[in-house]
UniProtKB/TrEMBL annotation:
GO terms for molecular function: acetaldehyde dehydrogenase (acetylating) activity. This is Aldehyde dehydrogenase EutE. InterPro entries: Acetald_propionald_DH-rel (IPR012408), Ald_DH/histidinol_DH (IPR016161), Ald_DH_C (IPR016163), Ald_DH_N (IPR016162), Aldehyde_DH_dom (IPR015590). Keywords: NAD, Oxidoreductase. Residues 42-428 form the Aldehyde dehydrogenase domain. It comes from the Bacteria. It comes from Rhodopirellula bahusiensis. The keyword Oxidoreductase applies. Pfam families: Aldedh.
Length: 474
């Protein structure tokens, strides 16, 4: 059954009619059973999640694995329906990539296998260090990957023994509610715990602030823009913040240009450039610049000329804030390359994934995290100039950087200079998250607070237990 927005809204309304007005009753063990994680306010959601956490911590590790297996199964088996639902609701990105993200997170999100016990023994006995849950985690999720972020976070957070309350982006709330409902229904049926994943059905800035300040929220995880990240860091609680990025690409004179072109298109066009790790601007050494542009055309991207780029810029970049700074226009974020081309006065096939063109380094498409499948290419005198510009326009986010080169010295130099959380050599951006490269997958990449690509370990506390002068048997 394909669920449209009206059907989802009716599900939300039905559950809220039964659960939403109910006052919080923390002393009643069964107060929120049957809610399946859908709540009308932050207080009830945290109370229900706290009860679910208390139930989970009494269960063996095997039950955490069972819960995770349920989330994985639903994400994989329902990826087409839920992915298309998210596409319809948000109206940004590409439907095939919405589907693929849910399937991939179901398959590759790290689980309980990441939790490891350390042991030290010596003349004075034995000490073991184990990973313990925080309790209830408050999570903020973005419109760019609403249910995928919830899915990946839920796997890692529950693997660590926690429960989570999600305040989703308002423009992705309906698919968040539907996905969380499905997770909880099956978990309650198979494991006997409801509300391990809770969601605020009508999220607001006020509900986010209430979550941040709630006494039973032990940890905050934000995947979103800088403003909500700052709010989390100012909450007085530990916060894990996945902040913005503006990933640069450097192409030097030794690069395999055809491979570089294929990779830039694959990464820069993925979900219409909504990924925070996606290629946003490319700095190419002058000696191979024209050859690189030809390689992009051979690989299927469509080149815009200066007049066309200017026309696109006039509608796709806007000025916001008291300081009138450049920002991506919402009407063009995550739209197809054909839409951007039309705005530039060019007709391209619907199958075209990416448009590109030459700009100077001061162009707003270089400096702004635009999240559109248009990639600006900038000439550099040499690789040192390219790296210097890449460092400047990455803005010190220390998020993601990419280089195409066969020169190990150049790779090393750029890696040291940019000091990013993710650094990709000779591949598309997604390879850094295990999609075509090695490693595991998470959509919460905590650069500002330093945790990096999050895992179950990220959402746990370290606890040490010591036996003095005993139990060392060797």
């Amino acid at each position: 059954m394909q669920l449209d927005e009206n059907t989802i809204r009716s599900v939300v309304a039905q559950v809220l009619a039964e659960v939403g007005p109910m006052p919080s009753m923390p002393d009643s063990a069964n107060a929120f059973e049957g809610s399946h994680g859908i709540f009308g306010n932050a207080s009830d959601a945290v109370t229900a999640a706290r009860r679910a956490f208390e139930q989970l911590r009494e269960r063996p590790m095997e039950d955490r694995k069972r819960v995770i297996d349920i989330i994985r199964k639903i994400s994989i088996e329902n990826c087409e329906e839920l992915g298309l639902m998210e596409m319809r609701e948000t109206g940004i990105g590409r439907p095939e990539h919405k589907i693929e993200k849910l399937r991939a997170l179901g398959e590759l999100s790290p689980g309980t296998e990441f939790l490891q016990t350390k042991a030290f023994s010596g003349d004075h006995g034995l000490a073991i260090i184990e990973r313990a849950p925080f309790g209830v985690i408050a999570a903020i999720t973005p419109v760019t990957h609403s249910l995928p972020t919830i899915t990946g976070n839920a796997v890692s957070m529950i693997a660590g023994g926690n429960a989570v309350v999600v305040n989703p982006h308002p423009s992705g709330r309906l698919v968040a509610v539907e996905g969380v409902r499905r997770f909880n229904e099956e978990i309650a049926r198979e494991v006997g715990i409801d509300n391990l994943i809770c969601v605020i059905a009508e999220p607001t800035l006020e509900s986010a602030a209430e979550l941040f300040g709630h006494r039973d929220v032990a940890l905050i995880c934000v995947t979103g823009g800088p403003a909500v990240g700052r709010a989390a860091l100012n909450s007085g609680k530990r916060a894990i913040v996945a902040g913005p990025g503006n990933p640069p690409v450097v192409v030097d004179e030794t690069a395999d240009l055809d491979n570089a072109a294929r990779c830039i298109i694959q990464g820069g066009a993925y979900d219409n450039n909504l990924l925070c790790i996606a290629e946003k601007e490319v700095f190419v050494v002058d000696s191979v610049f024209d050859d690189m542009m030809a390689a992009m055309r051979r690989a299927g991207a469509v080149q815009l000329d200066q007049a066309q780029i200017a026309k696109l810029t006039s509608v796709a970049i806007t000025q916001v804030g008291d300081d009138n700074h450049d920002a991506a226009a919402k009407d063009y974020i995550g739209k197809d390359a054909a839409v951007l081309a039309a705005a530039a006065g060019v007709k391209v096939p619907e199958s075209c994934e990416l448009v590109f063109g030459e700009t100077d380094e001061h162009h707003p498409f270089v400096s702004v995290e635009q999240m559109m499948p248009f990639i600006p290419f900038v000439r550099a005198r040499d690789v040192d100039h390219a790296i210097a510009m890449a460092k400047h326009y990455e803005h010190g986010f220390r998020h993601t950087a990419i280089i195409h080169s066969r020169n190990v010295h150049n790779m090393t130099k750029m890696g040291k200079e940019l000091d990013t959380t993710l650094y990709v050599k000779n591949g598309p951006c997604m390879a850094s998250l295990g999609l075509g490269g090695e490693g595991y997958l998470s959509f919460s990449i905590a650069g500002p607070t330093g945790e990096g690509v999050t895992t179950p370990d990220t959402f746990t506390r370290e606890r040490r237990c010591s036996m003095i002068d005993e139990l060392r048997v060797v």
